[in-house]
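User: Hi! Is it possible to get a structure for several chains at once, not just one? Here's what I have:
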Amino acid sequence: MSDRIFGGFGLALAIFYVWAATTIKDSFMVDIVGPRAFPYIVGTVLGLTSIYFVIRPDKEPDWPILKDLAEILFAAAVMLAYCWVLPEVGFVIATIFATAYLTWRLGSAPLWSLVTGLATSVGIYVVFHLILGLSLAKGPFGF
Amino acid sequence: MEILSLLADGFAVALTPQNLFLSVLGCFLGTLMGALPGLGPANGVAILIPIAFSLGLGPTPSLILLTSVYYGAMYGGRISSILLNIPGDEPAMMTCLDGYPMAQQGKAGEALSLSGVASFVGAFVATCGLVLLAPQLVKIALLFGPAEYFVLFTVAFATLGGISSTNQAKSAFAAALGLGIAMIGSDSQTGSQRFTFGHIHLYDGIDFLIAIVGLFALSEVFIFLEHHRGGAASAGTAKVGRIMPDFSMIKRCIPSMARGTGLGFFAGVLPGAGASLGSFLAYSLEKQAVDRDGKTFGKGDPRGVAAPEAGNNAASGGALVPMLALGVPGSGTTAVLLAVLLQLNITPGPLLFTKNPDVVWGLIAALFLANFILLAMNIPLVGIFTRVLMVPTRILMPVVAMISFVGIYSITGSTFDVMLMVGFGVAGWLLRKLEVPLVPVILGILLGNQMEVNLRRAMTISDGDWLILVGSPLTIILWIIAITGFVLPMLLGRRVKKRMEAARNEEEFVGD
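Assistant: Yes, the chains can be modeled jointly so their relative placement is included. Here is the combined structure:
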């Protein structure tokens, strides 16, 4: 069943892709094939393989139980929030909390998570920014 | 002789203090990443590309660093196979079969040093093979026109699933997905905006590094979260025992290493085979050759450690041949190495050998050096790496995630791109659950634009006649390879997969 749903999504994606390809505008430069031909081919392959998934689905993958699925969604949400606040509060503070969350969810005790977060954040800051000179997000405090 | 003088120039490049240092560093990091379950060579190199790039290293030093990581990871994969029966990366799977029983018999040290020597032999011979074979392949590749290149890319996609692929439709879907993503941005030929929907962040297209780090490294973090696998790989210090190799044992294993190396190199050069198949072939044929009744193999036979290790490392050297000479990688990790070259604005392929000989030969010399460094690191210092296995993944995986963020942020400096990477991470997790291979997606993103450009050039030459794609003997041969490579797994895939899975435990991996 999962493969059938996946195939349905794939087919919708393929149709959308081909439609989006038809809207590509020509520019003043032209070549024989034009900018649309290759996307049409790609869209067709996407569509045909998706139809195959609907007709001949593989056996069901072992989906995680709802709790573990929520785990992944929350982790993704935390990472997105991390990206979003990165320029607001700076690398070090954002990273402490993001790391603490991840290590807590992987089984560290809450207090130790904060310690791990702090150590990771400062460690990365020292190695990658102070020693190697990579540019990291600067917050209001400059780190 | 010309090759020798070119190689000598290469050594002059590789032996500068900076490059030597990078090589040692790369070997160390690579062995570390290979040893840790869940961080294979593809992941390891992927995380380090943006970092090497934002450090402002030149093309040759970056390549030296990252290929040392690649070779190192191939060596390191065996450590946890032998000590813990958990392969550090997919190609090291076969090493578990005899390596772990040896460790249980108290011969872990012997197994480690023997496999270190076998890795060295495999990788060294394969690097020699690379030196001899790549220039020959370049001569053929120079005959290729745009039509041949287009078909060659098709060969790469058709064969990438490999012989063990059970669902070719999913490989094809993955390839199309990657190619589709590559089309986003302004068209290289005419400048038309494609699939950008007026969104300014998409005008330059999606950076392939974002996709690679997201799909490979972040999806791995999600897999660990899903299974709550937070413990350490190894609970206490595993007993290693004597570390120095037992020379009589090594002597006994020389024929096994030779056979393993030959097969592995062959599997590596072939499109779509890669190191996993190399070690699998080496092990099963070695078993056929010396232990037909199954008396000693699987119970700690040293030959069962030597053959697959030589095979896996020979295959990783062999896989560099098509990548460097044709610009078409045959496995996940070489696809990531292709990303390194593209990121450095170097187009691999036949012209690389004539236009940037210093890069090619510096790289090859670095591979030779890396082999010696790795041999030295892996035999006396193996104890350091066994200790790393005690770091729990609940600390390790968040660090991996954060370094991925640091790398992408430091090259793009854009919040949008980092968020996109999280998106790719979730998509990668979903695709892995649905058993859609990720390597074709990556390869599609990497090669999409070149594939299209070659198609359009071919059409311009033929004035719009699609028959040019089957218009020369070379294209017809390539089509035959592509079709065979795509159809064969449908017939044999399930059988090969079943045999490989007999040896595999439930660990999940990203390519090899």
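Confidence is low (pLDDT under 50) at residues 505-512 of chain B. The longest strand of chain B covers residues 185-186.

User: Great, thank you!
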